[in-house]
Amino acid sequence: MFTILNIFIFVFIILTIIALAFSLKRLSVTKNDLTAQIKIVSTFKVIDKYYTIRKNSSYFIAFDSKDIPKYEVTKRTYELINIDDSIEIEYSKFAFWILKIEHNGNDIENKQNVQ
Fold first, then answer.
1. Would you say 45 and 84 are in contact if contact means Cβ atoms under 8 Å apart?
2. Which of 10, 45, 77, 93 is deepest in the core (most CB within 10 A)?
3. Burial 39-64 (b: 16+ CB within 10 A, else e)
4. Ramachandran region, residue 106 (left: φ > 0; alpha: ψ -120 to 50; beta: rest)
5. Which phi and psi angles does 97 have, rounded to 5°?
6. Residue 111 gets which letter from DSSP?
7. Hey, is 24 helix, strand or coil?
8. How far is Cα 90 from Cα 71, in angstroms, rounded to an integer?
9. pTM, entire model
10. How far apart are CA 67 and CA 94, in angstroms?
């Protein structure tokens, strides 16, 4: 007989298994990046910028790219970047890890967003 607690535990276990599967996939793709040691250097155009209002606001810039569609920046960087600006990004080929990101030659990596 199923109780509410049993259903809750079952759903929790299923969600945990799904999260683990996604983590293992990401790890596999990252391993491919380390093996291949290929990075892509490209310039993206900023097509939008927006922020979310919460306890801790988040600031985003959106690119004309399907590989890296958006990037979270600091408030200071958000205020410096305009739509149509160019952003230079170095990223890994398979997992799209951002290795370097610059605006007008200045590093704009969000150190709080490093995984």
1. yes
2. 77
3. eeeeebebeebeeeeeeeeebebbbe
4. beta
5. -70, 130
6. G
7. helix
8. 13
9. 0.69
10. 10
